[in-house]
Prior knowledge:
This protein has two domains: about 5-135, NusB-like (N-utilizing Substance Protein B Homolog, Chain A, Orthogonal Bundle); about 170-360, Vaccinia Virus protein VP39 (Rossmann fold). The protein contains 18 helices and eight strands. The chain has helices at about 5-20, 25-30, 35-50, 55-65, 75-90, 95-105, 115-135, 140, 145-155, 160-165, 175, 180-190, 210, 225-230, 275, 280-295, 315-320, 350; strands spanning about 200, 215-220, 240, 255-260, 295-305, 325, 345, 355-360. S-adenosylmethionine binds near residues 208 and 246.
Amino acid sequence: MTIAPARRVAFEVVRRVFEDDAYADRVFANVSTELDERDRALAQRIAYGTVQRARTIDHGIEELGGRALRKLDPPVRAALRISGFQFAWSEAPAHAVADDAVELVRAAGLERATKFTNAVVRRLADGFQELVASLPEGALKESYPDWVFDVWVRDWGFEEALELARAQNAPPPLDDYRGVSRGSRLAAEAVAARPGERVLDACAAPGNKTMLLVGDVTAVEVNETRARLLAERVPANVRVVNADVRELAERSFDRALVDAPCSGLGVLNRRPDLRWRARPLPDLQLELLRAAADRLRPGGTVVYSVCTINADENEDVVDACGLDIVPLGEEWPEFAHPKRPEFLLTTPHRHATSGFFVARLAK
Length: 363
Ligand SMILES: C[S@@+](CC[C@H](N)C(=O)[O-])C[C@H]1O[C@@H](n2cnc3c(N)ncnc32)[C@H](O)[C@@H]1O
């Protein structure tokens, strides 16, 4: 029997993400090249959706399948996971989904496990959607690690945490597909350098913000590969330096941007596996912000931005750095942080864009 190409690819992606710790978007790009446009879109929806919803699906497999997930052969687990996603969150015909699950397990060389797979996948087909509907609202139903949902409840209350969780299970908004979200642009605009000013881009990556900066830009990136990729594409006003910004000898910059590494809790809909890897990095963020501030001339300003929605990495880092806040909320009232209007916060559920925190500080 032939297996639907989209399901075959989704199965492969899910296996590599959970068995080899691969990044979903990279694996998907590698294994989907043979698909036509329609199947690629379908495969992406199934693969990304399954990775995002893994916690809820695994709960269903254990409840309805009656066996601990860790006891399942990896191909059986992956076939059941993509099937569970399709039963609850797609219109795919259940019998075709179930038949393909059995064939995927057979094609993986596990003939002995086909009977078990068949039995469990039919139980999922019959009962999983209902089981999801019956779950209490919260981290398990929306498929987030408890700590992520708890941070949002702590910062925003339960109802808004739920909206945020739901918004980041939906496909990313269109502006993000083009690679530059509103929050990204705000961060670069808030730097507000004038032509001729010396600007430090302290955490450049091969990102878009570097390209949006005005002035004589020194773009610092600690990762060698990223620095090389960035150097290949920067405009004439940008010089790339492969270094740890904490060790950079140059000083007296007029402006700086610290687009720091973070847990990424504002971009979870763009990176389906991120919620399972995300870690807050407040100590590193504070060090990077201080390193940039140390390299400013007196009166110079630094913009701190992170693509996360987590007070521990946002306002708490800024409050700890000891610099003067230069308010941004009046300039961009529609993006003023609801609790701290001197900062900006774009959010997926309110602004239909990635979540970004932006602050401006003066030395
Ligand atoms: C959030 S990313 C930057 C994204 C980019 N600015 C953009 O617009 O898309 C953070 C970057 O900081 C880099 N980084 C981390 N620690 C650093 C350090 N000590 N010095 C310089 N760069 C660092 C990381 O390698 C990573 O590429």
